[in-house]
Specification:
heterodimer, A: mainly alpha, Cytochrome Bc1 Complex, Chain D, domain 2, 5 helices, B: mainly beta, Sulfite Oxidase, Chain A, domain 2, Immunoglobulin-like, five-stranded antiparallel β-sheet, 24 strands
């Protein structure tokens, strides 16, 4: 592609920017928001605290022991996850019980056709 | 990926603009993940968006943009306006620059065909398991990137002798108190004439998922070096200090026992990719009707050439030389294939191992590290021949 064409595309992007970004940003929909984490006493709290920033795919693909889950939960609290001090250990227990190393991984999800 | 409230807000705005997404018709929340232009990709995370290329798409020397893996540490910028975009170059320089997209016309364009791989590609195979995106084979792809040389930009700004590292900052939107995704590369690599500020990918402007309007392209190095949505370049007198430089993206200075912890002071930053091959076909678990089987895949070694790829069809007892395709470039992978006549019906374990020009060969098992970086064990798939 010539530089002239590239810059032309940039200018077009600039003009169409607002609409284009609305469409791009608004057209990604994830099942993850509907996918509940496994049942348990802490399910709702974990779902709320974690999916504030990211979806549940990234949680549900992990297979970790309690020691590493502890490090992950503490890191997320440092990074802004709203977990009350009394909920920290129950969070770790919930994640360790539901996503342990010995549990088989789930089938992968593919991006669906439009 | 956006929240329900945000989605509805954008939907109304988009409808008002007269351009209605198909998703706005009918039920606003569908089963599954819809990312326009990325159909068929494996969803590792929908928010932040992390998409893996399935093995069946890893069969061409140039990976099509819709099939190129997407790795985001944060949210993608919610608004990108080419006309308002600015790139600043500052720090240990004689003159601070502020550039518009149109200013890039003053610099010549340079093309680099590069294999880009996430440092965590293959993390899902690491044992004991480690946290992070559980990539398998497909956080890798090859594209032809075009842009200006970072060298030329730094020359224009006049890098001072005190400049030792070059930092990249993008427009990623940071949730909560997450540290910003900011990293730096040594000045020597920054001044390499193949290191780019890329604006094009496979003959078209970068797409949003790949860093529009400009990204760093640090050839041969792990993908994390090639910051997307670039907005600031800063020359520093030392390595940037931040989470994604330390403890992030580092390897142990010497091998450690699987499952053990490591002091970050006993680690070094990851730079170049290691020697590696993957099997793109047949796929793991495939049942094949024919005994004539074309085994194929890709092999790469960062800044080094691939010397050979070998294939085993008997679980690693014997090895056969695969044919390397002729398409090649300094930083790009080589496609390879081996046509095998299975002696009889049954179950087989197929393996591939690459050796690079420096004599490095893929190991039987990858060097374990707590973040699962640079996984490069001999690849293997299990297949069943039916007749």
């Amino acid at each position: 592609m010539s530089l002239r064409k590239v810059l032309g595309a940039y200018r077009l992007e600039c003009r169409a920017g607002a609409i284009a970004i609305l469409l791009l940003g608004g057209s990604i929909v994830s099942q993850a928001q509907l996918h509940d984490l496994p049942a348990g006493l802490m399910q709702a709290k974990v779902q709320t605290a974690c999916t504030e920033c990211h979806d549940s795919h990234i949680i549900m693909q992990q297979r970790l022991g309690p020691k590493i889950w502890t490090k992950e939960v503490d890191k997320m609290i440092r990074w802004g996850a709203l977990v009350s001090p009394g909920d920290r250990d129950p969070f770790i227990d919930y994640l360790s019980i539901n996503f342990p190393p010995e549990k088989a991984t789930d089938p992968v999800t593919r991006v669906e056709p439009r | 990926m956006i929240s329900r409230r945000h989605f509805i807000g954008l939907s109304i705005a988009a409808a008002g603009a007269g351009a209605i997404s198909p998703l706005l018709h009918g039920v606003p929340f569908v089963e599954g993940v819809v990312v326009p232009g990325e159909e068929g990709m494996i969803v590792r995370s929908a928010r932040f968006l992390d998409l893996e290329t399935p093995p069946e798409f890893l069969n061409s020397w140039i990976t099509q943009v819709p099939h190129f893996f997407v790795r985001n540490h944060m949210h993608e910028p919610s608004a990108l306006y080419g006309g308002e975009w600015r790139l600043t170059v500052g720090g240990e320089v004689q003159e601070t620059l502020t550039l518009k997209l149109t200013d890039l016309e003053r610099f010549g364009l340079h093309a680099v065909t590069n294999t880009l791989e996430c440092a965590g590609n293959g993390r899902g195979f690491q044992r004991p398991r480690v946290p992070g995106v559980q990539w398998e084979r497909g956080a890798v792809g090859t594209a032809r990137f075009v842009g200006l040389r970072l060298h030329d930009l730094l020359e224009r700004a006049g890098t001072r002798k005190t400049g030792k590292h070059v930092m990249f900052r993008g427009l990623d939107e940071i949730p909560g108190k997450v540290p910003a995704f900011v990293r730096s590369i040594p000045i020597e690599k920054a001044m390499d004439t193949d290191t780019l500020i890329a604006t094009q990918m496979n003959g078209a402007p970068l797409t949003r998922h790949h860093g529009f309007p400009a990204r760093a392209l640090v050839p041969g190095w792990v993908g994390a070096a090639s910051c997307k949505w670039l907005t600031e370049i800063k020359v520093l007198d030392k390595e940037f200090e931040g989470n994604f430089m330390k403890p992030g993206y580092r390897m142990p200075n010497s091998p450690i026992s699987p499952g053990s912890e490591i002091n970050p002071d006993d680690t070094h930053p990851i730079t170049s990719m290691d020697v590696k091959s993957i099997i793109a076909g047949p796929s793991d678990g495939a049942s094949l009707k024919s005994r004539v089987i074309k085994i194929h895949g890709a092999a790469w070694a960062g800044e080094t050439d691939i010397a050979r790829v070998e294939v085993s069809t008997d679980s690693g007892t014997t090895w056969n030389l695969a044919a390397l395709d002729t398409e090649r470039a300094r930083y790009a992978w080589r496609l390879w294939n081996y046509v095998w006549h299975a002696p009889r019906a049954g179950n087989y374990t197929i393996m591939s191992r690459a050796t690079d020009g420096a004599g490095r060969t893929q190991p039987q098992s990858a060097a374990w590290n707590p973040s699962g970086y640079l996984y490069n064990a001999i690849d293997q798939v299990r297949i069943h021949v039916l007749t």
